[in-house]
Design goal:
Distance between the termini: 44 Å
Mean pLDDT: 95
Radius of gyration: 14 Å
Largest sheet: none
Number of helices: 9
Length: 134
Amino acid sequence: MQDVRRLLDPEEPDYAAMAELGTESLPHLRVLVQGDDHMLASKSAYAASLLEADQGQDVILAAARSDDPVLRVAAASAAANLPGGSATDVLIGLAADEDAGVRKVALSSVPPDVPNESVSRLQDAAAEAEGKAG
């Protein structure tokens, strides 16, 4: 945990070094995402997105389920680094979020390898949420 905190605590975290820690960092990232320090939680969600393939998806999903819209925005942004299917799993709930800022970041974070059908589902979810909010 000390190594993870040391790398994430600075204003400009060393994300490359974080990624080198690999899956050994996942339990620590999971704890930090669920902690009270929302800045550190946001950085942890992003760090999880930099792990190979979708190894950090569960950490990002935990951030996406947060009550804090700032952490949900971080989860949406982090989803852009995931493979298409995993990103869609994270973004579908965020595209329908009650917070307009979360929806906006979710729609702008769709990776290029997401199929058009999934992109349409995300856009429809956001439009439906916008209609409920408006």
